[in-house]
Design goal:
Elements (H helix, E strand, L loop, with lengths): L5 E9 L3 H17 L5 E5 L13 E2 L2 H6 L12 E2 L2 E7 L4 E4 L12 E2 L2 H14 L3 E4 L3 E6 L5 E6 L2 E3 L5 E6 L3 E9 L6 H9 L11 E10 L9 E7 L7 E8 L3 E9 L9 H9 L2 H7 L3 E11 L10 E2 L2 E3 L1 H4 L10 H21 L4 H4 L1 H8 L1 H6 L13 H13 L29 H4 L13 H6 L13 E3 L6 H7 L4 H4 L5 E5 L5 E5 L9 H5 L5 E3 L14
Parallel strand pairs: 1-2, 1-13, 2-8, 5-15, 13-20
Antiparallel strand pairs: 3-7, 4-7, 5-6, 9-10, 10-13, 11-12, 14-17, 14-18, 15-16, 16-17, 19-20, 21-24, 22-23
Helix pairs in contact: 1-3, 1-8, 8-10
The structure holds iron/sulfur cluster.
C-alpha cells in the first residue's frame, strides 16, 4: 500500500490483534467455502504484527480449534500449559494461600503465552489464506457518506512538524474505500470512540470502565518458579483499589508478572506503576525475582464493564470487535478467546453482507445475534453485574458477587450502574496527607528489583518520531490550569505509567504541564482517566510506539 493514493477493498480491518486477525482468517475461509473472491485488507499501526500487543496472557485453547480447524494444535506457539495455580492473599510481609480457586478463576487446561507471538502466528495463517496485511500504517479518520454510512478510512498524513506545518518529507495519507470496515483497534480505540459518540452507540448502556495493567517479563535463576505455575495475588499493596497481581512461570526460566488495578479510584495521586513496583518488594515476589534480570516492560488498559457496558456493535458499513467493543470476562480475567470469537462472529456477518451486497445496519445487525448465540453471551451475561459490584469497595463487592452467584448474575439490586473513570477522581483537598503520594513518599526505586518509569519505558522499546504533531492533546486549555492542575493536582503525572506528563513549576511558582509524548506506551489511560475529559489520545505516526517482543 502506497501513500498518496486511493485503495479500494471489500473489507478493511483496522487493527492486527487477536480479534482483527480472527475476523480475517474466518472470513477468508468462508469466502473460499462459498467460492467468492473478495479483497480483505488488514492494517496495523504497530511497526510489525505483535509490536503493540500486550496481555497477561493465559489463553483458553479451544477457540483455536474453532478458528483454525485445519491447523495442527502443536503448531500454535503457546509457551507452557498451566500445571498448578494458587491464589495468594498478601499482607505487607505475609501471605496466605486461599485453599480453593475463586469462582470463574480456574485455569485448568489453559496455556500461558506471549500474545504478540500468537498474533504473529495468526498473521502468517491469514496471509496464507490471501489476506493482505500492512503494518506501520496509522488510521486517524473514518470516512463517512452524507447519510452517515462508514465508507472507509484514511491513514495519517506524515511529514508535519510540531506546529502543524508541512515539512519537505510531507506525504498525504492513503484513502482506503471499503464496503465494510471492522474496527479491531484494541482497548479505547480512537476511531471507535469517535464512532460511538457520533452515533450515540452507548446510549442506555453503562459507561465503559477500565483497569490499567503494568507488566514486566523477567529472566530468573533456575528453580525459582516452575513453568506452568500460576499465582494470582490479592491484598498488598492496596485494598482500596479493585484488582490484583499475577505471576506466571514460563519456560526457559522466564517469569511474566504484573499488577492490574481498576481506574475507578478517587485519589488523584494514585499511581499504578508505583503500586506495581511496591508490590514486587513483597518477600514472596522479591524472592522469585532475586538475582534475576528485567527483560521487558509494558502497560495497557482493559475494558472491565462487561455485558452492560457493551456499545451497539454495528452501524452502517462498520462492525466493532474485541477489546474495542469491550469483550472481557472480568471474574476470569480473560478476553483473548472472546476477542477471537467476536472476530469470527463479525466474519459470519460480513459474508452475509458480501453475498447480499448490503452493508447497511439492517443487514449488519445480524452481528449482535451471532454474539448472543455465542459463548460471549454465555460467559458475560451471568456475570453482568460483577465489576460494578466492587465500585463501593471490596467488602461490598464480595457481598454483591455472592448474591450474583446464587441469582445467576441478577443480584439483589438489579442492574448495577458504572460511572466514567474520569468522573470518580476527587479533588486533591480531599486527600492531602492521606494521599497515595504522601503515603508512598518513602519509596525509592533501587533499579535492581524496582524501576522508575523512565527506566521501564526504555525496556518497552518505545520510539516516536520527534518531528510530528504531538498525539496527546489537552482539550480544555483555558480551564486546565485552574481545574486539572490546581484542583486535582495534575493526576496525569501520577497515573501515566510512562512518565509522559511532567508538572513543571518555575521560579515564580507558575505551574504548567509539559508533555513528553515520545515516552507514550499507548495504554490510553490519559484518554480515560483525566478529570473533565481533559486529554485526548490521538494516533501518532504509523510504526511509532512500543516495540514489544515477548509480551
Ligand atoms: Fe498511557 Fe496516556 Fe501515558 Fe501514553 S500518555 S502512556 S496513553 S497514560
Amino acid at each position: 500500500m502506497n501513500n498518496n493514493n486511493i485503495v479500494k477493498t471489500d473489507v478493511l480491518i483496522i487493527g492486527g490483534g487477536p480479534s482483527g486477525l480472527a475476523t480475517a482468517i474466518r472470513l477468508a475461509d468462508l469466502l473460499k467455502q462459498k467460492g467468492l473472491e473478495k479483497r480483505i485488507l488488514l492494517i496495523e499501526k504497530g511497526n510489525s504484527i505483535g509490536s503493540h500487543i500486550l496481555s497477561g496472557a493465559i489463553i483458553k485453547p479451544k477457540i483455536f480449534k474453532d478458528l483454525l480447524p485445519d491447523v495442527d494444535f502443536s503448531e500454535i506457539p503457546f509457551d507452557t500449559k498451566v500445571t498448578k495455580e494458587s491464589v495468594m492473599l498478601l499482607s505487607k510481609k505475609g501471605k496466605f494461600k486461599i485453599p480453593f480457586s475463586p469462582p470463574y478463576m480456574g485455569n485448568k487446561g489453559n496455556y500461558c503465552a506471549s500474545l504478540g507471538e500468537i498474533c504473529r502466528f495468526l498473521a502468517k495463517k491469514a496471509e496464507e489464506k490471501g489476506v493482505e496485511i500492512y503494518t506501520g500504517f496509522a488510521v486517524n479518520e473514518l470516512l463517512y457518506g452524507e447519510d452517515g454510512r462508514v465508507l472507509g478510512a484514511k491513514t495519517i498524513d506524515t511529514g508535519i512538524d510540531h506546529h502543524g506545518n508541512k515539512m519537505e518529507n510531507f506525504q498525504e495519507g492513503s484513502t482506503i474505500e471499503s464496503n465494510l470496515v471492522i474496527l479491531a483497534e484494541g482497548t479505547r480505540g480512537n476511531l471507535t470512540k469517535i464512532l460511538i459518540n457520533k452515533f450515540a452507540m452507548q446510549k442506555g448502556r453503562n459507561p465503559q470502565i477500565y483497569s490499567l495493567g503494568c507488566k514486566e517479563l523477567w529472566s530468573v535463576p533456575e528453580g525459582r518458579i516452575k513453568p506452568g505455575q500460576v499465582y494470582n495475588t490479592m491484598g498488598f499493596p492496596t485494598t482500596k483499589v479493585f484488582g490484583g497481581g499475577f505471576i506466571y512461570g514460563l519456560k526457559d526460566n522466564k517469569v511474566a508478572l504484573g499488577l492490574a488495578l481498576g481506574l475507578d479510584f478517587a485519589d488523584p495521586t494514585f499511581d499504578t506503576h508505583k503500586a506495581f513496583q511496591i508490590w514486587k518488594t513483597h518477600p514472596f515476589i522479591a524472592n522469585i525475582l532475586k538475582d534475576g534480570k528485567l527483560l521487558e516492560y509494558g502497560a495497557k488498559t482493559m475494558p472491565e464493564g462487561g455485558w452492560y457496558s457493551l456499545p451497539s456493535l454495528f452501524s452502517d458499513g462498520v462492525l466493532i470487535v474485541g477489546d474495542s467493543a469491550g469483550f472481557l470476562a472480568m471474574p476470569a480475567l480473560k478476553g483473548i478467546h472472546l476477542a477471537i470469537r467476536s472476530g469470527m462472529c463479525a466474519a459470519e456477518t460480513a459474508i452475509i453482507a458480501l453475498e447480499k451486497n448490503d452493508f447497511s445496519g439492517m443487514c449488519l445487525c445480524e452481528y449482535e445475534n451471532y454474539i448472543k448465540k455465542s459463548n460471549i453471551y454465555k460467559e458475560l451475561f451471568p456475570v453482568r453485574n460483577f465489576r460494578q459490584g466492587f465500585i463501593n469497595g471490596l467488602l461490598a463487592g464480595f457481598f454483591n458477587f455472592g448474591t450474583q452467584i446464587v441469582t445467576c448474575g441478577a443480584g439483589f439490586f438489579g442492574k448495577l450502574k458504572t460511572h466514567h473513570d474520569s468522573a470518580v477522581t476527587k479533588k486533591l483537598t480531599k486527600f492531602r496527607k492521606n494521599s497515595f503520594k504522601e503515603k508512598t513518599a518513602y519509596f525509592e526505586f533501587d533499579k535492581t528489583l524496582t524501576f522508575d518509569k523512565a527506566t521501564d519505558v526504555y525496556y518497552s522499546g518505545t520510539l516516536h518520531d520527534e518531528k510530528q504533531v504531538p498525539h496527546l492533546q489537552v482539550n480544555n486549555k483555558e480551564s486546565y490550569p485552574t481545574i486539572n492542575i490546581k484542583e486535582y493536582g495534575a493526576p496525569c503525572q501520577f497515573y501515566c505509567p510512562a512518565e509522559v506528563y511532567e508538572l513543571h513549576t518555575d521560579k515564580t511558582g507558575h505551574q504548567e504541564l509539559r508533555i513528553h509524548f515520545e515516552n507514550c506506551v499507548h495504554c490510553k489511560t490519559c484518554d480515560i482517566k483525566e478529570p473533565a475529559d481533559g486529554i485526548t489520545w490521538n494516533v501518532p505516526n504509523g510504526g511509532n510506539g512500543p516495540e514489544y517482543k515477548y509480551m
